[in-house]
Amino acid sequence: MERTNPITPAGFAALRERYEQLFAIDRPAVVEIVHWAAGNGDRSENGDYIYGRQKLRAIDRELGQLSKKMKVAKILDPSRQEDRSRVFFGASVTIADTDDVHRTITLVGDDEADAGAGRIGWNSPLARALRGSSVGDVKTVMLPTGPKEWEVIGIIYPEQAG
Question: Which domain of life is it from (predicted)?
Fold first, then answer.
């Protein structure tokens, strides 16, 4: 059974842009190099040919992965969320730990997660704990170092365009 993968419109656009870059620009350039290198004679000791083939396989593998991700992606626009009082996909959530350290995170698709930029994947432990929460709720997450509690301080969704 295939699983669907929630993703924001911007995240899906980034996947598609990467796919198009690889398919239309990077792959043809490597194919041209491999073709040129193949014409230079003995392929067994031809570094350009060998490296080009390896690069081509890596590009084809990434194209396959991106294609699968886009096929199961379910684009969800967080600006269309009706219940903005609770944490759902696409919410930017301000949380505070027991030391009163505040942090703002945005719940996004797993393929567009970037913890350093404050975007955490929808299926991460913290995101799963926060789902459905309201301001004032305290959620506990099991970390490798033990349980940690966070209180939901604020919930914001992007505004709808137009």
Answer: Bacteria
